[in-house]
Design brief:
By secondary structure, this protein is mainly alpha-helical. It folds into 3 domains: 2-130, MgtE N-terminal domain-like (MgtE N-terminal fold); 146-250, CBS-domain (Roll); 279-454, Tetracycline Repressor, domain 2. The chain is 67% helix and 6% strand. A 3-stranded mixed β-sheet has the order 1-2-3. It has a 3-stranded mixed β-sheet with strand order 4-5-6. Helix 5 (59-68) packs across helix 7, helix 20 (321-344) packs antiparallel against helix 23 (427-454) and helix 22 (387-417) runs antiparallel to helix 23. It is elongated and about 90 Å long.
Length: 455
């Protein structure tokens, strides 16, 4: 990529446009968009070269390349497009791609897009924009092939040839009657049927669809479950209003995974990429959770101060605090990560609460026993055969691991039940809660064991 970019940069500066055109004419639109992104980052001020390169793209790939670009590049190009060029791009873009672009661009750029859209396009754009941002309606496209059950296979092929070039997908066609969805038929079904067969005879009436207001994460998970290429979207009267295609579902999955990873790291989710987000916005998205976790960590300080007398009797207890706390935090993080992932995949539900907690309890008994034996033996051998100390460490590890896994397993499910994102209960928050619990357990066990020894 870097070598190709250097070559294109050099040729553009030398105004050898025909050679540039030969280099980019056979490139995939997604790769071209990536190339533009590199050029945009390296030569932000060289607007003329950036626009010249775009105008050298073959017309049949220019719009698709434009759709793959990030909003910064799209806005940059729209600012340099003539009205004629902008209309040509909009004519080639699918409606859902236009909507995605509009949602991320400044108001003045959006106004120019709408001014250069047809009446029908504006109506379609507004129809999609009125749906909630996280709904199936917000990510659907209205460009699908609709058939009638009384059509023959030959008539269906004729319609596909006529309108298919402007549709986002033709591999699955939808059978409607007065706009009500009654069945689906694939191109494979059409190819393997006789030309005189009726669509109503070969269509599949077991249609799986989603409502316009269904959560888009649920929609994306349905693609994973059923291996769909497209999923029909209907209104409350079962009238077909659009479809969600596989590429849009993958975008949703990527977005949701990014949100979960952000929350696991105690960062407020941000829809923009790392480099497109300003320094102050990055700081703002992180500082809230850092303040919450810092304040919650004062509980650990209060607990430690409460057992100050125990340190005076046996200062060695202090050196084992990090190990106990880290063990508890790691165990809680393991359980919470697996449970959150299970919830996200639809494998774990709140009805499985006691089943999950009991399973994690059994796991914790096995894990804690091994950890306790290893650490108890290590402490006993390394610290002058101090059996009370070794017993304290071993018992503390067992109790800490069991409690940590119970907390890590239960909190994400409780969050889901309370209609919160389970990822909120991810590593940083659970670690803080587990730290407090592990210290209380550790100091209480130490107090009991050494009180009996001293007696």
């Amino acid at each position: 990529m870097e070598e190709q970019l250097d070559t294109i940069n050099r040729l553009l500066k030398e105004r050898r446009f025909s050679e540039v055109k030969n280099i980019i004419k056979d490139e995939n639109p997604a790769d071209l968009a990536e190339l533009f992104e590199e050029l945009f980052a390296d030569n932000f001020d060289e607007k003329a070269e950036f626009m010249t390169l775009f105008r050298l793209l073959p017309k049949d790939s220019a719009a698709e390349t434009f759709a793959h670009m990030n909003p910064d590049m799209q806005g940059h190009l729209i600012g340099m497009f003539t009205d004629k060029e902008l209309r040509e791009i909009l004519d080639e873009l699918y409606i859902d791609d236009t909507v995605d672009m509009i949602e991320d661009l400044p108001a003045n750029v959006v106004s120019r897009i709408l001014l250069n859209s047809t009446t029908g396009e504006r109506r379609a754009i507004n129809d999609i924009l009125r749906y909630p941002r996280d709904s199936a309606g917000s990510i659907m496209t209205i460009e699908y092939v609709s058939l009638h059950k009384d059509m023959t296979v030959l008539e269906a092929f004729e319609k596909i040839r006529k309108v298919g070039v402007n549709k986002e997908t033709i591999y699955t066609c939808y059978v409607t009657e007065n706009r009500i969805l009654t069945g689906v038929v694939t191109v494979k079904d059409l190819f393997t049927a006789d030309e005189d067969d009726k669509i109503g005879d070969i269509m599949d009436t077991r249609v799986i669809s989603v409502n316009t207001h269904e959560d888009k994460e649920v929609v994306a998970n349905m693609f994973q479950k059923y291996d769909f290429l497209a999923l029909p979207v209907v209104d409350r009267d079962n009238r077909l209003v659009g479809i969600v295609t596989f590429d849009d579902a993958m975008d949703v999955i990527e977005e949701e995974n990014t949100e979960d990873i952000s929350r696991w790291a105690a960062v407020t989710p941000n829809e923009e990429s790392y480099f497109r987000t300003g320094v102050f916005k990055h700081a703002k998205s992180r500082i809230v959770w850092l303040l919450i976790l810092m304040i919650s960590a004062t509980l650990t300080q209060l607990i430690t101060a409460r057992y100050e007398n125990a340190f005076k009797v046996l200062p060695l207890l202090v050196s084992f605090m990090p190990m106990i706390m880290d063990t508890g935090g790691n165990c809680g993080a393991q359980s919470s990560t697996l449970i959150i992932r299970g919830i996200a995949l639809g494998e774990i539900h709140f009805s499985d609460f006691f089943r999950v907690v009991f399973k994690e309890f059994r796991i914790s008994i096995i894990v804690s026993s091994i950890l306790a034996i290893v650490n108890g033996a290590r402490v006993y051998l390394m610290y002058g055969h101090n059996f009370p100390l070794a017993l304290t460490i071993a018992l503390s590890i067992i109790a800490t691991v069991v409690i940590s896994k119970m907390i890590g397993a239960s909190l994400p499910m409780l969050a889901k039940k309370a209609h919160l994102d389970p990822a909120i209960m991810a590593t940083p928050l659970i670690t803080t809660i587990v730290d407090c619990a592990s210290l209380i357990i550790y100091f209480n066990i130490a107090t009991i064991v050494f009180s009996n020894v001293l007696m």
